[in-house]
Amino acid sequence: MLNIVQNLAKRGGDKTLRYAIRAPENHIIIACDSSQVEARVGAWAAGATSLLSDFASGDDPYCRLASAIYPYSYEEIYYWTKGEGKDILDETGIKKKHDFHRFVGKTGILQLQYGSGASKLAQFLSQSRANLHITNEDGTEDHSPEAHAAECKRVVGIYRGTYAAIPQFWKQCEEVIKALINGWQGYFGGPEQKVFYYDGQHTVFGRRVPAIMLPDGYWIRYPNLRIGINPDTGKQEYLYDQFDAGRKQTVKLYGGKLFNNCIQGLAFAIMRWQALQINRELPVIMNVHDEWTSIVEESRKDWAMELYMKWMRTCPAWAQGIPIDCEAKTGKTYGEV
User: Fold this and answer.
1) pLDDT-based confidence at residue 7 (cuts at 50, 70, 90)
2) Do both 125 and 72 map to the same domain?
3) In the chain, N or C terminus with fewer CB closer than 10 Å?
4) Which residue in 104, 122, 101, 112 sits closest to 42, CA to CA?
5) pTM (whole model) above 0.90
6) Which domain holds residue 295?
């Protein structure tokens, strides 16, 4: 039986449950995580070639964005955070400084893909105790909330300018929403604009429910998709109905959110396909977010690692060109992996 868990604390919080999951005697747990899968899939679907190139070549996209945000070269940031300098005992503070720069770059790559603005970025960074500052002409530093907000706005602008294909794809997704409302059909996304199929005439039990089909046949549906008017701004917006715990809720839809739905759906479609290939030879027993897990005899550890690495670095035919990667670990408990 496959167990699906949305998330289990790994780097922080209470890890008791993770360590409570233990392999039987003479067995180990193997867990394999799909590395930055949504960022990779999103870059491919939107045609963000420079970001795709970094992923494909093994360069670090977090350092790349950090070098665009801060006045330091990619090579210098990479050296101190991922290269030979990361293990050097540094008393000058330069390593700590570049660790911070890379964290800002990482946050940008992973959070700004779906249209988050400066206010959301500022909130996330503040919650992570990563407050940005402005260096004045006289060398003094401004750490005020206003400076933090201004820097976050600058970071958002740099991200959108560096990977212009992604915000351009949000606009395309906005056009898809309009097409769904109008009852139209067509394709969009990916190198040949054929990845996602949208159908404004899609039906469920005889009722029209505009929807988008993923390449594996899975549908993302938007019941009662319609145009509404925001009571606060008076501007037009797109709405649909969603049921949560049996209660109907009205939900906003916009280009960035549609992109989010499609990319998360596509990323997990790829992972489902990968799990099916692995499961032919080794039962997959658990999913946590972007990770699949199995239990295997200790004597077959190397074989299981090779099996996981093979398939978790392979895409189905309909997703060729995505530079998928992964990281696998083993341990006696789930907490160790």
Assistant:
1) low
2) yes
3) N
4) 112
5) yes
6) 3-37+263-336
